[in-house]
Amino acid sequence: MEYVEDVVIVGAGIAGLSIALGLHRIGLRGLVLESSDRLRVTGYAITTWTNAWKALDALGIGDYLRQQHAQIQGHWSHHSPDVIYGTGEMVLVGCDGVNSVVAKWLGLQKPAFTGRSAIRGLAEFPDGHGYKPELLQYSGKGFRSGFLPCNDKTIYWFLTYSQSSQYKDMEDDPAKMKQFVLSKLQKVPKEVINALEKTELGAFISAPLRFRVPWNVLWGDICKGGVCVAGDALHPMTPDIGQGGCSALEDGVTLARCLGEALMGKPKEGEEEYDMIKRGLKKYAKERRWRGFELITTAYVLGFMQQSDGVVMNFLRDKCFSGLMAGMYLKRADFDCGKLYSP
């Protein structure tokens, strides 16, 4: 039988694949297009906060993934829906990342450079590392660093720093990156230094930190006709609250839910199928505007506070704002994108 895909998804990243899975669970067919001949890798790990687990549960894979990862500690019935074939209308979803072509077509502004960059790496311990399942963070003048176990044999770490012309040559040289990171973390515990030393040079990744100006998400065109964007194509943000991957999962569930409700619900009087699609996408855009706005803004503000060069800001960060910042992390993670219901 010949069929037409209901939804074409550009990009096989977290947002694109979660949208495809969400659509599959409610009985809509999606086609994922990816320009790369292999899985795209721009980092080593994502932090899955409470909101991400709610999205993963909605997608039906939460329980499986809970068994596959280390749970970080700290103080602060089977159904196979029938596929709906050949609706005659098509939805295009841009999940093509921070340099999104689809976002550009929609008229969204190019993401702005924050003046900061990040170096990331993954340390491997074949015989086990023995580290506690805790997130360790260190802040200094113009930098912030963190270390956390992914499982009992790997540790993910990062260092964000204020960009300068003197660091330009370093970003293409893993050996220089390693020395730079070690120079910033001279006063941290030896266990942390050991993780850096265990990281192979080929595992050092450097990238500038960019974000979409928040009011562009609030007032720009997230969708137009049958076209919309999700994930980093919609709301690229700095990694300071660990919500980039989480919000992409939220996008996937929300878009699948909104499209499913529009396409499989009862049409309004005189409403054509294309109108139903537009109604679903408008609902998706409405739900994701403020969420994207608050995540981008919170990440930027917390990144500025934690990585400040100023003496006054550093004092306030260490003595006054630590509880406030912890609360902002938890508040942004306290979000439920909803559930998916199979037909």
Automatic annotation (TrEMBL):
Gene3D superfamilies: FAD/NAD(P)-binding domain (3.50.50.60). Pfam families: FAD_binding_3. Keywords: Monooxygenase, Oxidoreductase. One of its GO terms (molecular function) is FAD binding. InterPro entries: FAD-bd (IPR002938), FAD/NAD-bd_sf (IPR036188), MOase (IPR044560). It comes from the Eukaryota. Residues 6-71, 92-269 form the FAD-binding domain. Belongs to the 3-hydroxybenzoate 6-hydroxylase family. This is Zeaxanthin epoxidase, chloroplastic-like protein. It comes from Cinnamomum micranthum f. kanehirae.
